[in-house]
Design goal:
With 174 residues, the chain is an all-alpha fold. The chain is built from seven helices and no strands. Helices cover 65% and strands 0% of the residues.
């Protein structure tokens, strides 16, 4: 706990907010708290589009006689990578329990790299931990995660391509 921090009623509301967030129905893949979930499938429309694309490309690949077209294989690989990124998003942000100062540093760092193209928050974890109390750190992490989620949704194709490139060329950093 941060030095000189005195819990206030705000902390109780934060706990209630996150309990309701964790108990609400969310997408099975990305676990986004603010997205409508398709009842029968259990996915949000964004993840469902990716799932449909993967299934369609798998069907096209199975229809190929002999050797599959390289572009079709590439598109299938990119679609499956996008599906993996959706699931990874759910693992990262699905349940927001207490967050450490290092988690907050990582979110701030991601945000600054994506929006400002600079690493503004590297090696600031101890400073963040001493200034921001645990409950406020949890709320701030949640707010940052919403922004990072939207960035990941808007740039899912590019992020999938970067991941595929890093798998092919592991020594080259994007």
């Amino acid at each position: 706990m941060a030095e000189g921090y005195c819990p206030i009623p705000f902390d109780d509301y934060v706990d209630l907010f996150f309990e309701s967030l964790n108990s609400a129905k969310a997408c099975n893949w990305c676990r986004h708290p603010n997205r409508k979930v398709l009842t029968r499938i259990g996915l949000c429309p964004h993840c469902n589009r990716i799932r449909k694309k993967v299934r369609r490309l798998e069907s096209q690949l199975s229809d190929q006689r002999g050797v599959a077209h390289p572009i079709l294989e590439f598109e299938h690989k990119r679609a499956t990578t996008k599906a993996d990124l959706c699931k990874l998003e759910g693992d990262l942000y699905g349940k927001i329990d207490s967050k450490s100062q290092l988690d907050l540093e990582h979110e701030l760092d991601k945000l600054s790299r994506w929006y400002v193209h600079k690493r503004l928050f590297s090696h600031d974890a101890s400073w963040l931990g001493s200034v921001i109390p645990p409950q406020q750190r949890r709320v701030l992490f949640y707010l940052l995660s919403l922004m990072n989620r939207e960035y990941m949704r808007l740039n899912r194709d590019e992020l999938a391509f970067q991941r595929m490139r890093s798998e092919l060329l592991p020594d080259v950093e994007p």
